[in-house]
Write a structure and sequence with these properties.
The complex is a heterodimer.
Chain A lengths: L34 H6 L10 H15 L1 H9 L11 H6 L6 H16 L1 H5 L1 H4 L6 H10 L8 H5 L6 H14 L5 H12 L8 H19 L14 E4 L10 H15 L3 E2 L17 H18 L3 E4 L3 H15 L13 E2 H11 L14 E3 L3 H6 L8 H13 L30 H7 L1 H14 L3 E4 L2 H10 L10 E3 H8 L9 H10 L1
Parallel strand pairs in A: 1-2, 1-3, 3-4, 5-6, 6-7
Helix pairs in contact in A: 2-3, 2-10, 5-10, 13-22, 14-15, 16-18, 18-22
Chain B lengths: L1 H28 L15 H14 L1 H6 L1 H21 L9 H30 L1 H5 L3 H22 L5 H12 L10 H16 L7 H7 L1 H4 L15 H6 L1
Classes of the chains: A mainly alpha, B mainly alpha.
């Protein structure tokens, strides 16, 4: 088990809602962005003396631009429906991690400066001045929200805390108070093209390496092309797919599926990143600028279609926002959805019968599936509502014999965040990440004990990174996290592939 | 007294209508720049109307969240709805048959309303999480509603009010031809509290009744790939690039 300088929550057989412990997470503050990284995104470098005035102006501006913010500031009745729904509350017991209390950090400022009751009877309605203390709370607790939208499912008015934490981060950025992790990463995307700062030549090397690996494994020359003009499909995938485990096994899988489907495709060094952290900081302009790279890449490469790899918030930006931010996509082939998810593509090929599948290749595993929060509650796959739940499961079941779901109140629209989404996947928030994973770990433990589940498949780069890092704290093994396209890759027999004997042995060793 | 109540009631009505109209105007004017429906979401407008109907008529999301809270919410809101429908008899002459039919249910709905409110109040005191998020105004609004319910129910079940005189008064209000209010302390209290409720409605969390219809997570069609969605304020970026 991994070592921690904080108490790792105990997993309960029957998860319970904890009693509140005020201030339990007040100490946890993510590193702040240095002035140069703030300025690169068009924000002031640091707080000025009149930050309070600037913040209230910024809030007024946001209230005029975002209906969600205006309506959600007014509509909450404090019924408590959301209070036991956030994984961070369940894991940390800090009441300010209850969605309504997190919202109230902004609502009390909103009421003070923008409502009649708060201007004249502040105590009565819980309104307060925007003091340094309140700002500190904002910084801490708006960086303890992974914007997973679970609260929004259960709110009778659909109040989405993600909208409020995004707005809060934008307001803080606008007064010169930003978080290091997200803001530095966005800067890297602008300078280099991806979150990890991998330059073009490094990508080329990595992809060549993958081609060799696949050739050694199968004897088939599967290509992983970069910046190839005139092909049909542009694949945009999270940069973690280029080297992190188990992400890269997913990328190998996408390439094999494209190869067997007989389509031409490429990745782009300009748009070598599906992630868009502009969403996490609530900045429409930065999110738009990051999205525009994909449009430019598609135009330069002359592709007809865009497909996104396995990534949760990236799929939200792609599915729900890309048309707004970087459309119209009238220059692409309108016979296909723009953009398309790799799972939509793979399921299509499975249904057409172009893929030769040997399910027994995954017989060493009993699988379950973690619905990524952004995919589950902010997007769709396929034509029908809920396709985002059914399509990944259909693909897994088409390539695996052993599959079971986790308890119903922890999957699909009620899925728990992995604990590392929303721009919190940084080591300085490790305590929060470990504690926030608790509800998912409890669900995983229950199916492990009841059905002998050995592996959990995910379709999000953040989920995969978060889980591999965090599940050792709970006594699981990091190898238990797999990519869905890794499962596809295992079971897919390429045309002209060598016999699989060698493969089987090495997998048994690993298991 | 009668004159004071009359004036106050008119004032409350004006504030309620003007205040609500202003809020609705604000909500309608602010754009939703991005598609943020909580999915799975309907893919057609008709589907969205249905979703909103389920939300408003059955409290669908609340049902998913917490069954006891849902039950208390339903008891209060539907109790209140029946009570309000019953009250139409004071404002319409002759009383329509439908309202006559509601009469026996409407009478007892007052109890559902009061029980629901007391249950919701108990949650604020008993559950530590809900206690934590409760402000003084939350208690005051509950107190106001409970007192309205009790004063109203008392006139039906304890000390009957002069119905003919009351109807004379309310019809006078409607026709801007004020008539004297029957002298009855319960009635005066009831009308005063209702007027207070009408005044705070547009300036408090009671706005949730309007807000729900404007909630983008609930009222948007899930079709971002098919139809480009662009807010007016975001158009300026298009021209620059």
């Amino acid at each position: 088990m991994a070592k921690a300088n904080f108490e790792v929550p105990e997993l309960k057989e029957h998860p319970e809602v904890p009693k509140i412990e005020p201030g339990a997470m007040a100490h946890l503050e993510t590193f702040k962005a240095k002035p140069e990284f703030m300025e690169a995104l068009g924000f002031p470098g640091e707080l000025s003396d009149n930050w309070q005035e600037q913040a209230i102006d910024a809030m007024g501006d946001m209230l005029k631009k975002y209906r969600s913010l205006q309506v959600y500031m007014d509509s909450c009745v404090k019924c408590g429906a959301c209070t036991d729904k956030c994984h961070y509350y369940l894991g940390t017991k800090d009441p300010k991690n209850m969605p309504v209390a997190r919202q109230d950090l902004m609502r009390k400022v909103y009421r003070r400066y923008f409502t009649f009751a708060g201007k004249y009877f502040p105590k009565l309605v819980g309104a307060t001045d925007f003091t340094q203390e309140v700002l500190d709370d904002w910084y801490n607790y708006y960086h303890q929200c992974s914007q997973c939208r679970r609260c929004s499912v259960f709110c009778p008015y659909g109040i989405d805390t993600a909208e409020i934490s995004m707005a809060a981060r934008e307001i803080m950025d606008r007064i010169g108070l930003g978080d290091k992790y997200s803001n530095e990463i966005i800067g890297k995307v602008f300078r280099i093209g991806n979150n990890l700062g991998l330059p073009g030549p490094a990508l080329e090397d990595t992809l060549e390496g993958l081609e060799e690996d696949v050739f050694d494994d199968t004897g088939v020359e599967v290509k992983y092309p970069l910046d190839q003009k005139g092909v049909d499909i542009l694949l945009v995938t999270p940069s973690a797919d280029f080297f992190a485990e188990p992400h890269v096994d997913g990328l190998i899988g996408y390439g094999k599926v494209f190869h067997e489907a007989g389509v031409s495709w490429t990745m782009s060094s300009k748009a070598s990143e599906a992630a868009n952290f502009g969403m996490f900081i609530g900045s429409y302009e930065n999110m738009r600028k990051v999205s525009q790279r994909i449009r430019e890449a598609a135009l330069e490469l002359g592709v007809k279609r865009i497909i996104f790899g396995e990534c949760g918030h990236a799929w939200r930006v792609a599915y729900a926002f890309l048309n707004t931010l970087a459309g119209p996509w009238d220059f692409l082939d309108q016979n296909y959805p723009v953009p398309q998810h790799i799972l939509e593509f793979t399921l299509g090929e499975l249904e057409k019968g172009t893929l030769n599948i040997d399910k027994s290749a995954n017989d060493d595993m009993v699988l379950t599936f973690h619905d990524s929060c952004n995919v589950a509650r902010a997007t769709r796959m396929g034509d029908k509502p809920g396709g985002q739940f059914e399509i990944p499961r259909a693909v897994i079941k088409a390539v695996c014999n052993n599959y079971v779901d986790m308890p119903e109140d922890t999957i699909r629209e009620a899925t728990f965040c992995c604990g590392g989404g929303g721009g919190l996947l940084t080591d300085d928030l490790m305590e929060l990440r470990v504690k926030g994973a608790k509800p998912r770990m409890e669900a995983l433990k229950s199916v492990t004990e009841e059905y002998g589940v050995t592996h959990m498949a995910a379709i999000c780069a953040i989920c995969k990174s978060q889980f591999t890092k965090v599940i050792p704290y709970y006594g699981f093994d990091m190898d238990q996290i797999v990519s869905v396209h890794q499962l596809v890759s295992n079971a897919l027999i390429l045309s002209g592939q060598n016999s699989e004997d060698e493969d089987d042995e090495s997998e048994e060793d690993a298991a | 007294m009668s004159l004071a109540i009359t004036v106050f009631f008119y004032l409350a009505t004006v504030i309620l209508i003007a205040g609500l109209a202003y809020r609705i105007w604000v909500y309608a004017k602010v754009p939703a720049p991005l598609k943020i429906a909580t999915t799975p979401a309907p893919v057609t407008k008709g589907g969205v109307v249905l979703r909103m109907f389920r939300e408003v008529a059955f409290f669908e999301s609340l049902f998913k969240s917490n069954k006891l809270l849902w039950l208390l919410g339903v008891l209060f809101h539907f109790g209140l709805l029946l009570v309000l429908l019953r009250h139409l008899r004071y404002f319409i002459n002759p009383v329509p048959e439908v309202i006559e039919m509601i009469q026996p249910f409407g009478k007892y709905a007052a109890f559902a309303m009061i029980i629901g409110l007391l249950g919701l109040w108990a949650r604020r005191l008993i559950i530590d999480r809900v206690r934590y998020i409760t402000s003084p105004s939350d208690h005051l609004i509950l107190a106001l509603l409970v007192l309205i319910g009790i004063s109203g129910a008392s006139m039906t079940f304890v000390s009957h009010v002069d119905i003919v005189g009351l109807k004379n008064f309310t019809m006078g209000l409607l026709t801007f031809d004020p008539k004297p209010l029957p002298s009855d302390p319960l009635l005066a209290i009831h009308l005063f509290l209702v007027s207070v409720l009408m005044i705070i409605f547009p300036y408090s969390k009671l706005l949730h009744g309007v807000g729900v219809f404007f909630s983008p997570t609930r009222n948007q069609v899930d079709n971002p790939r098919e139809k480009r969605h662009l807010a007016d304020w975001a158009r300026k970026f298009e021209e620059n690039s």
